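Our preliminary data section would be incomplete without showing what the modeling component actually yields. Below, a chain of 568 amino acids is followed by its predicted structure, encoded as tokens that our downstream tools consume directly.
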Amino acid sequence: MACGGKGADLPMRIRFAGVLLALALAGGLTGAQRGTGATTPNSVCADCHDSEAKLNKSAHVGVLCASCHLKREEYPHPENAPKPQCSDCHATVVAEFNMSNHALELKKGNAGAPDCAFCHGEKHDIAIAKSNEARRASLDNCGGCHDKAMAAFEQSVHGRAVAAGIREAPVCIDCHSAHNIESPKRDGSSVNTQAVPETCGRCHGDLKLMQRFGLNADQVTTFNSSFHGLALKSGEQRVAGCASCHGFHDILPSHDPKSRIHPKNIAATCSSCHPGAGSKFFLGKIHTVEVTDEPVPIQWARLFYIWLIPGTIGFMFVHHLGDFIRKFHIHRFQGQRQPATMLKPVKPHIRMHRFERIQHLLLMVSFIVLAYSGFALHYPDEWWSRWFLAYEKTYPLRGTIHRTAGVILLITSVLHVISLIINKTLREHWKEMLPKFGDLREMVEGTLWRLGLRRQRPYQSSHSYVEKAEYWALVWGTAVMAVTGIALWANNWMLANTPKVWYDFSRVVHYYEAVLATLAIIVWHFYSVIFDPEVYPMDPSWYSGYSPREFPEHGHGHTQTHGEQKDH
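Predicted structure:
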């Protein structure tokens, strides 16, 4: 508007003096606080400037001109008066933009790279970012440079939803973010491989939103609990993410024949990482919720272990707790004097021969490494696993360490079998671990005594049901872990030659068997060799070969010792 509208009868300089006086009284502020001291109505500025109409329709409606246009104390305005910058009020947003790919291109001198005005428009007519008009306009802005990506997006399920006017349908800025757009290769990018599940989860993890459109809200959670999801969370960069199967801009529903996850195309999609996957057998459902929609063999396996683990470990805990209470009472409250033979028996009983101790050492080291490296994959966010996974992005060694320990365990098992075949002494010693009918009687009587249901401590063999149960459980567990572990290691062969259900079955059994074995070692074995009052602080037979326990002579009756007298 030209100067000389209403109020032209007053000298121009006097009118502007009043305006500037109001600005001075309001006080000039900078940064995010600039608008808090301005009180001059925009209508005063509109006497000369025609921006008020545009401003009232923009995202800046309600913002006073004087809060942005500072240092206009004189008229005409001084040439060095600072022009308002976006960073004056939007410092955080501008800081994010300065870290983006677009800002980097501007710094390189690329005049075609977008700045604030390119996407938002000029300062006085900036569209409201959350409006449908602004969201649709963002597609045109992005498509101006990224035409191929935009062409694919328009044909995708997301693009068609946007075209249909669905407000919740995602546009470019929903996935790539609005200001800190970064390359997928950069850490922190919303479309980085590791961040994609979270980015997709903003919509596909929203229960109410998914229910509204009749979609499954479990897709993200089921992915996160899968091997792909766990490996991705632990830092592995080469594992498949959401986009690896569903695509990036060209995402299509599974019923579309062109979709990568259409039943006719899923084998080819999986084969990009697993050659031959699904070539002989249909792969089956990918996203499955535990128990509810898993194949029957997997449901049975999961339910079997869900009942077996608490029952077995619960029995072990009660059994050894009773043992501890009984022995603690004998040694501390019955006035029993502990003989020196408890620490160093006159006739030490050989518990483990040299080669058995070597096998035990290999078994101990490999088992600890296997348990730690395996559970680190399943629980990557826990404090005890973070340091181990800290270098997975650059040096993915967890899997290599885990498999190496598995090979050592298998070699130890083979050496154990060979030693029993070629060495008579070891074979005769091993025969003591063969189950006998009397073991059942010892277990019943021993358990009753530990539970306080029997007064006199019963006879217990030097290799009783306690050692035999542990040994044969180890044999069974090692066999199960070896078979399922090899199946998981040979995942390409499994997916190419067997139904996917058997790969998933192996994974479930491998995990639960590891949980059972680890808890059994902690509860059953550690008590027997460490916390048992008769050997505390440790039974040294694993390195010396001899145990401080007093055992009955082989083939003779039970010799009662100080710890085996009647419990009066």
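The chain has four domains: 12-84, 87-181, 189-287, 296-564. The chain has a mean pLDDT of 85. Preliminary results of this kind motivate Aim 1 of the renewal.
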